[in-house]
Amino acid sequence: MLLLIGIVIGLVLGLTGAGGSVFAVPLLLIVAGLDMHQAIGLSLLAVAASAIFGSLRFSNRQPVLWIPAWILSISGIAIVPFGQWLALQFNESTLIIGFSILAVLIAIRMWRLAVNEPALSAITRASDLSNENASGLLCRLSPTGQFQMRPRCVSGLLVGGMLVGLLSGLFGVGGGFLIVPLLLFLSQVNMMQAVSTSLIVISVISTIGFISHVLLVWQSGEVLPVAWMIWLLIGGISGMFLGQKLTHKIANAKLQNLFAFTLFFMALTMVAFHFLVGG
Q1: Which of 226, 259, 277 is nearest to 2 (CA)?
Q2: 147: helix, strand or coil
């Protein structure tokens, strides 16, 4: 079962430009029957494995903005442990409600993007957007395409990275739903650069988040089953590979609408499952 869940997580992550990692927790919670804290920790493993594979497989073809990627990553991993500590302060019901609200907001964003900008919603691993209008942006690009790191730009990236780290630790999400629009908002980068950069950031933050989760589990005297981790690793990598094979054939606005509707339905199902069945 965990193998199939890992495949679905990697597949959805590969077929979306942002927001795919949010499917991980509901699947682990509802289908695998894990509790919320277990689902959050193992979600980070599946997302990290998928994102790392995606980053490595296309490392020679996708333009990563390395300076913003490391600023986002470093600020994010500094906050992940706090987010995980914060998650331990809440009971499972509160975490499920909070996650469901976040998932609904992401689903609405995915739906609106698919409806209002269908060409952009179909972008998963490659695209070009207009760089013409850069007025009022916090970060500008030099004529060679490099980030010009002004104080306001760095501040925006630091705050964005910390928010991604907080949500990753708190809810086990990768953060692509924040990273991609953040980069597009701060600068005149194109969608392909934003998606490529987000994969690097997701890889780093999710990996550190999972390691931190394992340490917290060990400190409590428990041990994560190795078999669970292996199946999720294999599934996540397989799903991402499959997603990258299919993305140029099936990725479009209708598929993003389907993902948005499914995520919305899963968020409601999480709440109903917990309070009507689990409670």
Answers
A1: 226
A2: strand
